[in-house]
Write a structure and sequence with these properties.
Number of helices of chain B: 11
Structural class of chain B: mainly alpha
Strand content of chain B: under 5%
Number of strands of chain B: 4
Largest sheet of chain B: 2 strands, antiparallel
Number of domains of chain A: 3
Strand content of chain A: 15-25%
CATH topology of the largest domain in chain A: Rossmann fold
Order of helices and strands of chain B: HHHHEEEHHHHEHHH
Number of strands of chain A: 14
Helix content of chain A: 40-55%
Distance between the termini of chain B: 54 Å
Oligomer: heterodimer
Largest interface: A-B, 26 and 34 residues
């Protein structure tokens, strides 16, 4: 028994040593050339939302590679926050002590918000590719904008408003039912913004009901809707439930237009709903390959050549974020924190996800794309800029 | 009225699933007084077995249903042998906690092997809609209903008319006395787990076909609802579980259809609380006096 214990303890010690060594490696700071400009890439590479973080890391690394090929000298410092907000705080402090000039990431709003205060205090410019939560760039205690924090995606509420605008102006609808995910802030923000804009433009919200994430049976609620007088169904939520709602609605004979947010943007939506049910379905997004601009097409080709897969929205946003930071550093002509920050704030950026500049909450002013699905395939994309207050 | 009938059909389809799962709870409880919290996960495994059989082996609905039932029966017996049998004479709370442990093991294990995300169940038969007046019934709903009723009738026959059924009833009344009369109690318990798990496996496949979306945590909530259904009808009583399953399914549908879907789960739990206060033995349960 005693030897067993000894063996066990030794094994533990070896494992701990190995994991510590691994920790040391995780910041792949190729510090051989200390003369380069360090850019922190802080992403969810493992854990619940690893899909987003991994895609964004690839986008960022591609941008840095392109910049270095064009004669730059940028060094990436990669950290994995394990999709965990506490880890994100620790890594923000780590990044600050690593002497990075700017940070790109994380992918999600929660992990991003956790890193802002520390990086802002350290005067490190942060560009968030996909932190879409409402008031994300504001300090939650003072309500003021973080000086050094920027994001390049539109706010959740903005796409809700854009969808309302599109439903009324383009689809010519006036009576909407909103069927929302009851738990996520994302869906709540979307539903509120949609309702407000839809009513403002003269439409009526006939009914609002909610589902819980993980539900699979929507028949009862859809049966109730079916007897109501409405002409468009808005589903703010993610593809897992939206796919099933669309399927059950179509099978029940609800054949009106169904509209949704960028949570619809997944191959799984087609599997769940069935391609033949995905007609007269529209959703808002920041990214589509339909009618790609030359810049976007070049990015798609380069990405495919590098990673042998199609880039998605997250990779494209990260590519833009990283390029924006690099352009700002070059425009500032130095790595002085204040100069870099000012260069970012005043930038007129022309990227693969569109051209934009920042408003006074450091959120881009850019239009939302509305994608039409025809038999589950993206058929058409139009830009919508809602006039919100 | 049309809407009411339509909601009834929705409720019966959902209730069929709950009833099938509730039967497993109630049979196991009836025989060894264990609330088998891993039962909802057996239902999940049934869906995954059906998924593998239809996608990887390319078989149709009926083979998928049968293979899944056999597979779940084997899994159920194995779990009983490994996790519960060594605890046969331990306190009930020990077995209960073990059941929760088994439940987590099955959920996390499936996540590890099959991935944590949602899988899409293939369309195994053509789904057509039949109109009865203004009420729509899909072939899927009819299949669910027919399979459920068939299995229930078969179960009733098994329990009431066969030798093994009589042995099950005997063990349920008094395990020790049954043993003295020459009943192989261990075999009967294994058999009970097998039957209960097979029914859950069938429910899993039906759900996969009906909603075409399965995931490793899909057993949690239906498992609890089915447990409530079993308690509602009187836990340990087989017709009670069927009644309870249909009742809970219909209540849930009606609450979502005429009230708000945010209330549907809450109402089911309120029913559980009310039944425990007013008639703890369940709707079909008899109050048995405890002899001191």
């Amino acid at each position: 028994m005693k030897t067993m214990k000894k063996v066990f303890m030794t094994a533990m010690a070896v494992m701990m040593a190995a994991s510590m060594a691994a920790c040391g490696d995780s910041a792949s700071d190729s510090s051989g050339s200390s003369s380069g400009v360090k850019i922190g890439l802080h992403y969810e590479l493992t854990g619940a939302v690893a899909d987003y973080g991994t895609a964004e890391l690839k986008g960022s690394q591609l941008a840095i590679k392109h910049a270095n090929e064009a004669g730059g000298n940028y060094i990436e410092v990669v950290y994995d926050n394990k999709s965990d907000t506490t880890e994100s705080v620790t890594l923000a402090a780590q990044l600050a002590s690593d002497g990075v000039v700017g940070v790109v990431g994380p992918a999600t709003s929660g992990a991003s918000a956790a890193s802002y205060q520390i990086l802002n205090d350290a005067k490190i410019t942060v560009v968030s590719p996909s932190a879409t939560a409402i008031n994300q760039t504001l300090n939650p205690t003072s309500g003021e904008v973080y000086d050094y924090v920027f994001r390049i995606c539109f706010e959740d509420s903005y796409q809700g408003a854009a969808m309302a605008q599109y439903a009324i102006d383009t689809l010519g609808k006036a009576k909407a039912i909103v069927y929302a995910d009851n738990a996520s802030d994302y869906a709540k923000g979307l539903a509120d913004a949609f309702n407000a804009q839809f009513k403002k433009l003269g439409g009526t919200i006939v009914a609002t009901d909610y589902y819980s994430a993980g539900d699979t049976d929507f028949n009862s609620v859809l049966t109730k809707f079916k007897d109501m007088d409405f002409d468009v169904l808005y589903i703010p939520g993610y593809y897992n439930e939206a796919g099933l709602i669309i399927k059950q609605a179509r099978e029940m004979g609800i054949d009106c237009e169904i509209i949704g947010p960028d949570g619809f943007d997944s191959e799984s939506l087609i599997d769940l709903a069935g391609a033949s049910n995905l007609n007269k379905v529209y959703y808002t997004t920041a990214y589509t390959t339909v009618g790609a601009s030359p810049a976007l097409q070049a990015f798609i080709d380069a990405y495919k050549a590098e990673y042998n897969e199609e880039p998605g929205m997250f990779a494209a946003l990260a590519y833009d974020s990283t390029n924006l930071l690099i352009q700002a550093i070059e425009k500032a002509g130095s790595t002085d924190p204040e100069a870099v920050r000012n260069a970012v704030e005043s930038i007129n950026f022309d990227g693969v996800t569109g051209s934009f500049s920042f408003d006074d909450t450091h959120t881009p002013i850019k239009s939302v794309l509305v994608v039409t699905l025809v038999d589950g395939v993206q058929g058409d994309a139009v830009a919508v800029s809602p006039d919100v207050d | 009225m049309t809407q009411f009938l339509q909601q009834m059909i929705n409720g019966l389809s959902l209730g069929s699933i709950y009833a099938l799962v509730a039967l497993g709870y109630t049979m196991v409880y009836g025989i060894i007084k264990l609330i088998n919290f891993a039962h909802g996960d057996i239902y999940m495994l049934g869906a995954y077995i059906g998924f593998i059989v239809t996608t990887k082996l390319g078989l149709g609905f009926v083979p998928a249903l049968l293979i899944s039932m056999v597979g779940c029966a084997i899994i159920g017996m194995t779990i009983e042998r490994i996790a519960y049998k060594p605890l046969r004479h331990a306190t009930r709370i020990t077995a209960l906690i073990t059941a929760i442990g088994v439940s987590y093991f099955l959920e996390a294990g499936t996540q590890r092997v099959m991935g944590a995300g949602v899988q899409t169940f293939p369309n195994v038969f053509v789904n057509e809609t039949i109109m009865l007046g203004n009420v729509r019934i899909s072939t899927q709903q009819i299949v669910i209903f027919v399979v459920t009723i068939t299995l229930m009738v078969a179960l009733q026959f098994l329990v009431n008319k066969t030798k093994i059924g009589r042995a099950m009833r005997a063990v349920s009344v008094d395990g020790d006395a049954a043993r003295l009369m020459g009943v192989n109690v261990n075999a009967v318990i294994s058999f009970t787990f097998a039957i209960g798990s097979a029914l859950a496996g069938a429910a899993g496949v039906l759900v996969g076909v009906y909603y075409n979306s399965i995931n490793p945590l899909m057993g949690m909530l239906p498992g609890i609802k089915a447990f409530i259904a079993a308690v509602f009808g009187g836990i340990g009583i087989i017709p009670g579980a069927m009644l309870g399953g249909f009742f809970i399914g219909i209540v849930e549908t009606m609450v979502a259809g005429y009230g708000s879907s945010l209330w549907k789960d809450a109402v089911v739990y309120i029913i559980l609380i009310l039944i425990l206060i007013i008639k703890p033995a369940g709707l079909l349960g008899k109050n048995t006096k405890e002899k001191v």
